[in-house]
Amino acid sequence: MGESNQRRIIRKLDLELFIASLTPQPTPQAHLEQYTTSEAIAANMLYLATYTNGDIIGKSIIDLGCGTGRLGLGAAFLGAKNVVGVDVDRLAVKTAYENSEKTFLTENTEWINGDIASISGKFDTVLQNPPFGVQTREADRAFLLKALEVGSSVYSFHNHPEVDLKLVKLLKNQDFIQVSPSPFLEQFISKHGGYVKAVYSMCMTIPKLFSFHKKMKYDFIIDLYVIKKL
Ligand SMILES: C[S@@+](CC[C@H](N)C(=O)[O-])C[C@H]1O[C@@H](n2cnc3c(N)ncnc32)[C@H](O)[C@@H]1O
After folding, report:
1. Whose CA is nearest to atom 6 of ligand 1?
2. Which stretches of the chain are assigned E, i.e. beta strand?
3. Structurally, what CATH architecture does the domain formed by 3-229 represent?
4. SS3 45
5. Closest residue (by CA) to atom 18 of ligand 1?
6. Tell me: the pLDDT tens digits for 24-61?
7. Is ligand 1 within 6 A of the CB of residue 14?
8. Is the CB of residue 72 below 6 angstroms from any atom belonging to ligand 1?
9. How confident is the model at residue 4 (pLDDT cuts 50, 70, 90)?
10. CA-to-CA distance for 67 and 36, rounded, in angstroms?
């Protein structure tokens, strides 16, 4: 990737346009909760990680459950040193690789078709939007455990603990607000060697994707956990 990308601040709108240009999941599967992170939400995560916390530029990144590579490629676009993405879905990984070709980011990105359990090593920063456990109970726990095993800083999306229509309305007009962690996740993370530095609530909109979806689009609150390894 070009040196110039590492020196100048990339506008958030340009980051969103970059993410929007990537090919999405061709055949999303409900049991793997394969909905794509919207460009606005992915850009919120990446912007906080890059320009608030200094966790992307020049860093080694792993994108757990990378899907089509949106989070990892966004990090590479912002100036990550190298990015590894892993996903169980073969077609998603193929699409992630094609997305890296299309954006000229093959040099410092690598895409692995496999379960996150197969990943070892150490990375500066983990990016993940894990399955929330809507289809498979507690699916996000295995992602958190792996993230805390391999990463120093972790950016992880989780389901907001309650349905809050007022918050949805508020967050439709603003990027995010800082909230308290869920006591359960805070305890789980601390038990496994990390601490929650901050949590941000944001409103994610997803289009009708699966046969059980009744509406044309869904707005829901998603919480970004910023976690540091102790
Ligand atoms: C909510 S999607 C997010 C995809 C992508 N990171 C994004 O932000 O658009 C969750 C992804 O995790 C993958 N996944 C689920 N369980 C997995 C596992 N055990 N190992 C690796 N990937 C997994 C799914 O195939 C899916 O692509």
Report:
1. 66
2. 60-64, 82-87, 109-113, 123-128, 151-159, 177-179, 194-207, 217-229
3. 3-Layer(aba) Sandwich (3.40)
4. helix
5. 115
6. 988 777 776 777 899 999 999 999 999 999 999 999 99
7. no
8. no
9. very low
10. 8
Q: Per residue in 8-23, pLDDT tens?
A: 899 999 999 999 999 9
Element (H, E) at 120: none
Query: Given ligand 1 and candidates 44, 113, 129, 141, which is best to mutate, with the most ligand atoms within 8 Å of its CB?
Result: 129
Spans of all domains in the chain: 3-229
Q: Whose CA is nearest to atom 14 of ligand 1?
A: 65
- The answer to pTM > 0.90 is yes
Nearest alpha carbon, ligand 1 atom 3: 129
What lies within 8 Å, CB to CB, of 169 at 6+ separation is none
Residue matched to tokens 């460009």: 39
Per the CB < 8 A criterion, the answer to whether 106 and 72 are in contact is no
Q: Could you tell me the two tokens for 58?
A: 């020049």
Q: Whole-angstrom Cα distance, residue 64 to residue 85?
A: 6
